[in-house]
Fold this sequence. Notes:
The chain is α+β, with helices and mostly antiparallel strands. 34% of the residues are buried.
Amino acid sequence: MKKKLTEEQIRSLAGEPQSRSLAVSFNKEEDVDKENMTIWMTVSSDVPYRRSFGYESLVHSKEAVDLSRVKAGAAYRDSHDGDQLAVSIGHKFVKDGDVNKLKLGLKFSKHNPRAVMVFNETVDEIRKNCSIRYNIMEMVLAKETEEDYYYDVTKWELIHAATVPDPADYQVGFGRNADATNPEKLLELIRQAHNPELKLQLITNNKGENMPPSENNAGTEEVAVQIKNARDAESKRIREIRKVARDFQSEVGPNVDLDKEATLYEEDPDKTADQFKNLVLSKIKEKAATQTPLGNADEADEKDLRDYSIINAINASILVKSGTNPDRLSREYKTEIGLSKMIAEKTGRPARGIYIPNQVLKQQRDMVTTGQGAHFIATDLLSGQLIEPLRNKMVTTRMGATYLEGLSGDVSIPKLTGSATFSWRSTETTTITDTTPTTGSLSLTPKFGSAAVDISDALLVQSSPDVEALIKKDINLVKAIGIDLAAIHGTGSGGQPTGLAGTAGIGSVDISSMNWAAAVEFESDIDSGNAMEGALNFVTTPTVRGTLKSRAKEEGYPNYIVNENNMMNGYPVMTSNQITADNILFGNWEHLIIAEWGLTDLIVDPYTGARSGLIQLTIKVMIDIGVRYAAAFSKGANFT
Length: 640
């Protein structure tokens, strides 16, 4: 059922930025300059674009388009809410048959690995789609048919363009599939997507018997309103699912077709948009868990990993620092230098020292008793020297924080920022109030951290696996301490991520005179945010937990706020010396996201501590911290 927009509704569109996605188009020979990393790319056209109110066409002319932001170097972004990848260096209005188009000249950053990757994938036609964000300034009704209204946007402002998964404007280049190159078929697919066949509830006749709508009076006002409400609700559900599929395709990778998954969800009326968001998050986690991280050696290098010696890596770094050409180092260091070069080539980021493959730091090197590695075997090996994974040393991950490893670019994680609401209708024919949930994303970008470990130069003459294990354990421990502290108390300034305690929107409990009521209030805080399902834990300092183990719930009774099993109000109470002295934190820890980009750069300084027989090892890592739902956490301070 079509409905014409009122002037008020048109004005409201002008108050909110719009977006439309499309397939990019360019001529490789004429529009691409690989040396200077520039592309002249078609980003929009005047092809009618399906909206909920009809079809919208952006008029493409110098008079209609406000290009002031483009002239000032409007950004080309990594998704609409992502980081800047390129700047605009110019624009052109072009005509392709009956279609008017806008081309932007984009210059990509050579110093941003993500920008380099997107440029290369765009030129190689791996990334085929982009989207523009724009403001509507004037819109008029251009045409009316029996089925739809067609509006011309006669004045609009281009804000920026962004790389996205799905196209919607087939005229701007190659589409998602062969069908999208057929304009008539594409329009038919659009109509089907926005006007699905609906399963309506059976209506009772005057005898109380169920009757299909086709056997009832389908022309009555009641049935018409029911059909409209059902179509509106279904259209809203599909729009939300499609938006999530478009926005997060790049995050789940090429092996997952979110468009196909979205179609399956659309066809099942019992599937909600929230369920689809949860599916997408699970796919992002699966990708992080299964892909070869940037800082990993490839599987083909398994033998090199068995032969890898961190002591050799340190000695090789010292020789290089003293002026030895890496290519002329003895065969003894070939494995360590070779793997570092491989990681540098894979990431496009040269090491300041020497890269250590992630696998070396995460587990004890496999021991061999024959072949090249045999001389490393010590007679007595202690099981306690096995290297534990980094996350086992961190209180945040032991409490259930989500740890994403092996990331290769900025990450966006879908989240719900506002809920839909249930409403009542005064009569059967009253229109349902539209209460679309507000969605957003948690953006994670690398923050650069470092820490130093001093070791004795006498250790470097050892070849015992115990010495290897000791050095790895020290490196892992210092990483764990730094990441844990950032996850909880990161300041968000000076290059640090923002930690949980400093995240806006988390709950607050008064613990200045901590009692049983305050312990229960933590739970109530999280419950009111509908976040009680998941990894629920308290964390505080050993001193605070010890105090609460001797503080009675009620004076005169031997029941304590924290019991002998370190439980408070039914939830585990963990401790960390990195918690601020008077703080208690409680929450659903799976909503704390720790992201690691998987590069460990080891810089060796044999000079600063030389008089004391010490060698300083500095490790550099890339980490970010994010809270998916602030309402899932609560904090108490000023404990007494």
